[in-house]
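pasting for ref
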Amino acid sequence: MKHLDRLIIKAKKVCGTTELRFSLGMVYPVDGGKWEAYGQLWNYIPRNKPGCKLTIAKCICDSVNDAVEALQELSEKHPNDRDVTIIIDTLEGD
């Protein structure tokens, strides 16, 4: 079984399955009544291993719906085979 696992890992590296995938989405309020959409793109290689790539995409939107839509578009451009939750922070504090 270990031999088969090693072959699968080698095949994934050769075929280039290390593309960035949408891995995290957050929406939270910023000053001026705007909302920030924060999307994380990651190739799912552990962060302490060579070849790890992590990119952050941010944009400021006029509404919560616009921010969620921006993250959904990002997830369509960088599909993921896992379920990814988009967290919406609507709490306001001092």
